[in-house]
Each structure stands twice: as C-alpha cells, then as structure tokens.
Amino acid sequence: MPQYQLISFDLDGTLVDTATEIAEAANLALEAHGLARRPVDEITLLIGAGTRELMLRLLARIFLETPALAERVQTDAVLASLDQFYAQTTGTSARVYDGCREALARLRPPA
Fold it and tell me: In terms of residue numbers, what domain contains 27?
C-alpha cells in the first residue's frame, strides 16, 4: 500500500449524507419568503455546487413556473435566509455513509 502523509475529504456528500438537512434549510428559506416547499428529491438533485448555487437554481425553477414571483421575491434575502436556516438544520439528520467508518479505519496508519 502506498504511504501517504495526508489524506483529506470533503465532508458533505462524501463522508456524511447531509442532503436532507440541506433540503430542509432550503425549504425553510422558501417558506420564510412566502414560497411553497419543494420536494426533497428535487432539491437533492441541485446539490453539488454550494448552497448559493443550489438556491439560485431552485429559485430559477420556481420563477420559470410562476414568473410573477420573480417580481416580489428578493433573491438576496432568500439566500441570506438559507444560510441562517442551514446553521439551524446542520447536524439534525446527517448520517455517515455505510462503510465510511471502516474505510477510514483502513486508511489509519499503524500505531
């Protein structure tokens, strides 16, 4: 096995499934601005480029469906709300992916 000095991982979506927490934060942000909740599966598909991009993509979908909402919803305010709600939902339902602990243990150098 090759010898490594350091191995690093991204936490969200790599070691820990945080999709439901992110989706809940996005839905809370939508509700806070008078918008309807979206299905968790729809939000999960938008995860991957950061929370700002996720919310921009989600709002774009909403505005395409109901163009009049684009005139009354302040995008920057929704984005700020997402950060606030994500801070509240972080750690509430995340779970370590199956096999993750074992894989990390195998990467640990011998004592």
Answer: 16-104
Q: Is residue 75 part of a domain?
A: yes
Q: For residues 25 and 85, is the Cβ–Cβ distance under 8 A? A: yes
Q: Which amino acid belongs to residue 40? A: V
Please report where in the chains the tokens 């243990």 appear, as a residue.
105
In a domain, residue 9? The reply is no
Q: And the tokens for 102?
A: 């074992």
Overall domain count for the chain:
1
Burial track 43-56 (b if 16+ CB lie within 10 A, e otherwise): bbebbeeebeebbb
11: in domain: no
**Catalytic residue numbers, as ranges:** 10
Structural element, H or E, at residue 101 = helix 100-107
Q: Is residue 7 part of a domain?
A: no
pTM for the model: 0.85
The helix or strand, by DSSP H or E, that contains position 7, with its residue range, turns out to be: none
- Tell me what pLDDT residue 55 has: 97
Contact residues for 7 (Cβ-Cβ < 8 A; gap 6+): 107
